[in-house]
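Annotators were shown the component list below and the corresponding predicted structure, then asked to write short factual statements about the assembly.
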Amino acid sequence: MDQHRLEKCNKLREMGLNPYVNSHIISSPISDILERFSKEDDVLPENEEFSAAGRILAKREFGKTAFLTIRDRSGIIQVYIKKALLSENDFEVYTLSEVGDFIGVQGTLFRTKTGELTIRAFQYRLLTKALRDLPEKFHGLKDVETRYRQRYLDLIVNNDVKDVFIKRSQIIKEIRDFFTNHGFIEVETPMMHSLVGGAAAKPFITHHNALDMSLYLRIAPELYLKRLVVGGIERVFELNRNFRNEGVDTKHNPEFTMIEWYMAYADYNILMDMIEELVTHLAKKINNSEKLEYGNLTIDLTRPWARLTMAQAIEKYGNISQDEISTYEKAKQVAQNLKITIDASWGQGRIVSEIFEAVAEEKLINPTFIIDYPKEISPLSKSKEDNPELTDRFELFVAGMELSNGFNELNDPIDQKERFQKQVDSRNAGDEEACMMDEDYIRALEYGLPPTAGAGMGIDRLVMLLTNKQSIRDVLLFPYMRNIDTI
RNA sequence: GAGCCGUUAGCUCAGACGGUAGAGCAAUUGCCUUUUAAGCAAUGGGUCAUUGGUUCGAUCCCAAUACGGCUCACCA
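Structure shown to annotators:
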């Protein structure tokens, strides 16, 4: 807290004024005034008074006059203060207000000699006193730690930050509209699970006191959403948070937002088509282009997008033939040549996927669907009819980043139970990311899940792409930060 | 979890063979009736992240810690 501000605050109180007024209703935002008189030769009404309220961003004083810049949610306008035009009391209040405070003014309009539309204040009210100085007006707030920890300051001072979050809001609205228009129902399923499932990740663990039981923050909503398809909600989506107890970096935050959707009587090819349609629609809506500038990359979203099997991608980007990874021993040899550390529990499928990640993933700049994932790493996907070791599954990569994952849903309860059992075995062998046996989910499948395809898409990463941000922290209002003791 | 780098005034940044620091903006006080990074003058403001060590003396060298950034690992 700044002493000089506190003193001014106290002076206002001594004058009998509340530095934190209970109410100040404003009928129209600043943008209304700006739009009504947008042209320099618009005639300004001499006797009509206009009101505006906002935070003082700048103050330029000249003895008995001053110019203030104030901002509300809609825009910025200049206010002209002249001692002779205000009551003695209002001018005194003006002298006690400073950059950062919220004020309300009323007065007539005029243009300065540079043509700037300005309110000539006849009434001046201080609405909220700020007790801390704002960061510097010209350089703004650059320190990334402060920007993330005190996002409110970042938003006050750095204008483009708000734009990112406005875009994020638009993107999410468009996604909801897209699925709703395709006949999908939005639902909310539990965030606290008694079993870990639906993805491979370490969970956060919490405890329910009254019931004296451990609960896990969900790592994915998948198994609940498919129960809903069993129940007849054949097109369903959830757009909400997942929690994974993993590392933090520019592409990972412990809590992140995903959309998952499930569609009966569709298959993974249809989902890939939907994703192409959705993402190109978003790019046009948000950026008015099917080309994205992302860092020093240009990403071309023009349809159709490339679709490669995992083996084809390894061949194309790693120059490793499909024969070279066709058996466990051969694949192991290739992986060793690539200096991949192989765990004894891995089968051929896992090794091949590691090879893919090593040689191809980061090279997938334009959107590319990788299909035919190994069954070994796809415990919830349907096997391919012509090759039971592979699954009807895709992942979408853009700018070297995994954006989406989808597949034909395994709906054979007997097969699913066997795959869960394998997960349980891995878990007992020490794999903290393996799923648990979910007997109720098996029971649901026993009642019958129609042929269904489902997918998930990372909303934060999608927003990163569409707003040209290289760190997930720049698209999260309050990214995860370590606790600090002192303020 | 590992490696490298960083942490100096409210903000943005300088700086010092090791002899306890400076600018601009912000603030305070003057002057100023059309400025817009307003101007001019003066003033105040710092445990140089924290804790140890080396030294006559450390903000500077060394170590540890905290927090952050980048890279790596982890993230089917």
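Statements collected:
1. Chain A has two domains: 3-134, 157-305+366-475.
2. Residues 157-305+366-475 of chain A form a domain with the BirA Bifunctional Protein; domain 2 fold (CATH 3.30.930.10).
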